[in-house]
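QUALITY CONTROL LOG
STEP: pairwise intake check
CHECKER ROLE: data steward
CRITERIA: each record must contain a sequence immediately followed by its structure tokens, with no blank fields

ENTRY 1 OF 2
RESULT FIELD BELOW
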Amino acid sequence: MSRKPIEKYEVVENFLKKITKKPGTRSTYRSFLNRYFKELGITDQTNYFTSGRDYVKDIEKVVIAIENIPDKTQQTMLSCVKRFMEKNEIEIKPNQWDEWITRNDIGRPQAVTDDKIPTNNDLKTLLEYAVDIKTRALTIFLASTGLRIGEALQITIPMLNADWKNNHIRLSADISKTHRIRHVFYTDECREVLENWLKVRDKFIEGKYNKSVFARENKRVTDNRLFPFAKDNALKTWNRLLERAGSPYNEKDSNPKLKDARYKFHIHTIRKHWFSSMLNSGMKENFVNYIGGHESLLKSLYSDLEYQQELLKKNYDEHSNSLLIFESQPDLTGVNKQIEVLQKDKEQMQKTIEEMKAQILELRLEKLEKQNGIKSSVRDKTNFYNK
């Protein structure tokens, strides 16, 4: 079933052109403003700013209508509406906005989702229920790179092959959510599973083409994406894993502020797993935020790191063991035992050296006594040793 295309209205599109070039931001703001007009029952926005409406009452009606959606969504939507009004020269007093924020208690918006971040063992357990290499490859790729699912599904074979030997992908600006070039990396474990996936990828595309009337009619047999399927398919595949695995993996968050109950281990928590793993392993926070695409947390430093590919790669490699799912983590038990033995040997050697020094001192003193024909006192021996 095809989705209904998102409606675009001139008054909204003109506003979006003025405030941002980012497609993602435009899409988000468009949906907010479309909802704004929907809550007001307005289907023709052409004369909205010339019809002499009571805009305060309009906004207040919308504020009441959205009070049960997540706090952060409310805050972002009201921010969008505020900019929309300002760009169209509609003045709303600051204390009025404060009153609406207080009314809906969103001054300090709280996340309403009850997410559970999977561990390496959780991911390993889930992948035991994967029925194909495609699912395994995508999951390990997300866990290894920290990419958002929307970014991962736009990676192409040429992008992967460009620096395959270094397990490095230069994410282009049109794919990155931040609309900035950034460098991402993946583990040898991920590379191995990608190699296996690439062996059957063409057959997957061929089967998909043969099953799809739309693909055949539009001759869409060529697709150079690493994972040639839609986001909805990826989500459904992941959710099937959760259901096959059962409790606790298929538990859902039933918070009433959510539009639909969703899994606590939803697919985006794989990205959260990447962040927590890298930070807990000791990787520098700035490097983690850059590779993970958190531009807002880095500001001007983001541009500097764009030219530090080798440094980023070095730091990623030093901490990437924390991302391994199937490959065993390095067992340091034997190494630690060897260190203990060496430490004991060092202590014993030091003791032996001190004993040898004492013996040498005794011999030198005895020789001195014979030469001088006297017997040194203990104090004399000590003084001699200190010379």
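ENTRY 2 OF 2
RESULT FIELD BELOW
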Amino acid sequence: MFLYNLVIYLYGLVIKLASINKLKAKQWVAGRKNWRENLSKKITALNSENILWVHCSSYGEFEQGRPLIEAIKKKHPGYKIILSFFSPSGYEAFKDWAGADLICYLPLDTKKNARDFINIAKPKASIFIKYEFWLNFLFELEKQNIPTYLVSAVFKPHHPFFRWYGGIFRRSLATFNKLFIQDEASGKLLEKIDIKNYEVCGDTRFDRVIEVKENFVELPLIKEFCGNEKILVAGSTWPGDEELLVEAYKLLNLPDLKLIIVPHNVEEKDIAKLTALLTSNEITYNLFSEQKLNKNAKVLVVDKIGLLSQIYHYASVVYIGGGLNEGIHNCLEPAVYYKPVVFYGDDYHKYNEATELIDLKAAKNISSATGLSDEVSNFLNDKVALNGIENNLKSYFQKKSGTTKKVMAILKLT
């Protein structure tokens, strides 16, 4: 634990230094200021002995955990939900979400912070979503005999649990009362390290994207921009993705193809960099925030968060960003609309859904602008293949839905 705690301490120090000129780091630090006092006041205001603590790392994990939180609220209305986030990306997007009774940042994972947080919150049970293994928190929960669950987890051979140095992480798996995992492959890996407290239930993200699709709300400006033309939607893009996209879009050179770019970061400097790239390539564009359209512009930059899952509805083909950075983003959000997907890089094997979509011929991975241009063109022009993709994806989502019900049937909340 000494090395782990040292890394945590250094991480906190780096974030504080970065907060001098990085917005997200500044939000990370500011959101944790006086957290003990703030949490105590909010817990007192809840006036409840039935507290359930749910922790999500960021935006994507919240979307994964949301169906379960809503199901728990419905089945156990007497529980008050504390929802914590590690990242500003999640907290800032959902800090006003009405589905939780208290929303906060997770303090840095030191032994004292973990003890104080749990002593203040006094949860009857805790749920961690997918990839959250904060050791001091987990060991404190175990010490206080608080039932703890991990939901929609997936394990891969490269994870530290299965490495020679992963003893302390293997120990953390035993703190969970139940590991609700996505697939049998994860179960086999856990068996190899003698972890048996798991249940294969699937991924709650499928329930979430199906719900979003079923509650789709028209976006008038997007609909007007699209008209009856073919649409390439680029979701959660980073600068490297955007350079690739611009090159591929110019190679395609299709007069009836429009491009919608939805950047991962929509801070002013990020949007300025993207629009400068478009301008330098003599590409006219519209900005969503201006709420007016230049009819001659074939590109729309969506400089607002929270719309992407609806925008995918309008796509003919989708490019998923992130492959040039931290890893590809959510492929299920466009696939639920039966849209073909393209993403960059060969590390997609880390993501079950990406591998499965490729197996269904509903996705392609590329390594160049030429490759992106070719795959988009192929998808746009092969109607037979598109019909097959639609049929495959319908069956896929029908098979994969229902994870939330499976978890709820096993989850022990009294």
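INTAKE CHECK: passed for both entries
DESCRIPTIVE NOTE, ENTRY 2: The radius of gyration is 22 Å.
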